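Consider this record:
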Amino acid sequence: MLESSNQSAEETILISKASYYAYGVVMFFILTVGFLGNVMTLLVLFQHEHRKKAMTPYMVNIALADIFIILFGYPVAMRANLRGKILESSHCSWGGFVNGAVGISSIFTLTEMSFVSYHGLRQVNRSSRLSPFQVVCSVAVAWLYGVLCMLPPFLGWNRFVVSASRISCCPDWSGKSISDAAYNLLLVFFGFVAPLTAMTVCYYKIYSLVHRAVVPGNLPQIQLRRRQSELKVAKVTAMNVIAFLLSWAPYCCVSLAAVFTKQFVLVDWEAEIPELLAKASVIYGPIIYSTMHSRFQATLFRILHCRRRVILAPQFITDATRNNCSARMAADRTQGTSHIDQRFLQLPLQAMKRRVAVSYGGTAICKRESSVFVSG
């Protein structure tokens, strides 16, 4: 009997050590990739071609929020965990507040981005965009919203406690009193359900607007292109929203289960999984921007001085494009640097529309006048 008890205790210690090692490895990956990715995001967004975009302030806000929580939120609990110490009350209060406030501010910012995407598709005129003052106010409201949602525990309504996984802190989801349950339900509603509902409505309207398939015949070409650009940005924003919500949904579901059952439904290392998924939300934005946003990708490659393949959009390939590219290629050949395959330019126009032009380095292939501006 004694041997069985000792074996059980030994297995518990091994599991605990294994879970802490796994936690340390995953958190190191999240902190490293999240910090580097969001710093690169800021470097790209501060380039001149991105500064005046309607979505840039919100993307910058999310990147700054991610960097803040990476530097001042996650390390507090991580340092105590890796030293084998129990999280103190002050650590819990800070960690729970920062994680919650930044997370809710980010999801509120994504909600505002959804609204801006819908507004941009409806109003193709540049004059209809939000003013700088309105943008600053909307970003400030996002932060104020997050802070207000996490402020009640400091005023005696609920409290921050060590989570079921014992690696971080959170509101007392399993609190027995009615007031604790009321705060928890309101927190889930205003921090997750309400923004999710608003974003769903916005993207449903975007879907309806796009699939209405009615584009005014007298719409100027420049406004039509702006509409297409807004649609691409809306797709990137939607993917960012989906990734963020999927990372936080498991944590919200587990928390709601604890509210109704008055106890944690997952314990020890099992409870780490939804928490780590939520923490990993800081790495999704840079990955999505760099893989789905062509202009972001082009700027990133230029900053990193990487070689890249560039596809000339078929709708922009005309005789003017051919002439412009030919002239540029001839000039480049005299300097010993050819940026485009000569065989491509000798193809018929219809064939050109189906082929790929390849550019190396950081120089533009064609000029603005030909409606094509591709840079490496």
In short: Residues 2-45 form the longest helix (44 residues).
